[in-house]
Amino acid sequence: xxxxxxxxxxxxxxxxxxxxxxxxxxxxxxxxxxxxxxxxxxxxxxxxxxxxxxxxxxxxxxxxxxxxxxxxxxxxxxxxxxxxxxxxxxxxxxxxxxxxxxxxxxxxxxxxxxxxxxxxxxxxxxxxxxxxxxxxxxxxxxxxxxxxxxxxxxxxxxxxxxxxxxxxxxxxxxxxxxxxxxxxxxxxxxxxxxxxxxxxxxxxxxxxxxxxxxxxxxxxxxxxxxxxxxxxxxxxxxxxxxxxxxxxxx
Length: 250
Prior knowledge:
Layout: H1 4-11, E1 15-21, H2 41-54, E2 61-67, H3 71-82, H4 92-103, E3 110-113, H5 124-134, H6 136-149, H7 157-164, H8 167-179, H9 192-212, E4 218-224, H10 228-238, E5 242-244
Parallel strand pairs: 1-4, 1-5, 2-3, 2-4
Helix pairs in contact: 2-4, 5-6, 6-8, 9-10
């Protein structure tokens, strides 16, 4: 017999919208977007536009790319911001997440990320150097993917968000990660540990979102764009959520 909570979820699925973004304060990714000073007047206007657009989704909870173990610190900073005792830093969690949550009168903001070592054997930089040296054709293919998913020439934050969340870019990014399984196939699957870690991380994010969800919730997750395709797949395949396309609100 189905648990009453599970049955309620199935009948009144929470909506969830994954908003892929670039990291405003810099990044540890192999390739990223540098759009300049977050605090410039122009970028602040663009952030204002993004926030106003995202309000249209009417989120009841806002989740962000912060490790769950840091939830207390995250919310202490958020409460200080709400009480006008905190200056926002140059990252999307605070510039967009804090401001949107505050303007919607949310009491909390939710950390759902995980960054432990897990299944990883080598780092992303290690496996990229390996493929560059030992599999030049695959390296060229991965370079092509990276160029495609970061080729937007705009420095406008609102335009970058629309580009990052477009279906073609989400699909291309997901395809790129899947092809990383081919790294080191002839050498004990050299790159597989990192890729398993990547899926592990996203599965944990999914599990944290599922734990957070209640019937009729409208959850917005703000996270790096490389996560969007894989997370949307997990969220849809779980049957627990109605997944909303972020591009409709950007």
